[in-house]
Known about the structure:
Blueprint: H1 6-16, H2 22-26, E1 38-42, E2 49-52, H3 54-69, E3 75-78, H4 83-95, H5 100-103, E4 120-124, H6 139-147, E5 153-155, E6 171-174
Amino acid sequence: MPVYSRxxxxxxxxxLGIPADYEARRQIxxxxxxxxxxxxxxxxxxxxxxxxxxxxxxxxxxxxxxAAADGIxxxxxxxxxxxxxxxxxxxxxxxxxxxVTAILRLVAAPGHSEHHTGRALDIGSPSNLRLEAGFARxxxxxxxxxxxxxxxxxxxxxxxxxxxxGYEPWHWCWHH
Length: 176
């Protein structure tokens, strides 16, 4: 996993059209890239491998098991994401005609995504395998909202969050 210096990330931001004051204005810190990752299985939506740091993976498994005991099926959709992958997501959205401003309401800039840490997890349910606000209307979300903190997971982007990122009821990050 390549490590990017702040200088390299600033250069990448310039190439993507991300404003130089992004970090300060959005209050989204640089995120340390995970060094050690373990598999927690495959994404329920597209079959890609999902990886987390060992401690986040242990917390995820415990949370998933507790949810199952309550009749709730939590499904992993996405875990660790590299800086290069984050940049590719933004490039694809730019190529599709989206503006940088619109993109940054939905996606953190490369270097700032919690997914880089290997502690962030996008979670779905059997009835909702898409990263959309409708996940908030599921039993699985209600369970997460009531219980995830016990396992160290927090909802990163609630409604009207200070970072200016849209509501992401599926995005949970493990904090040790």
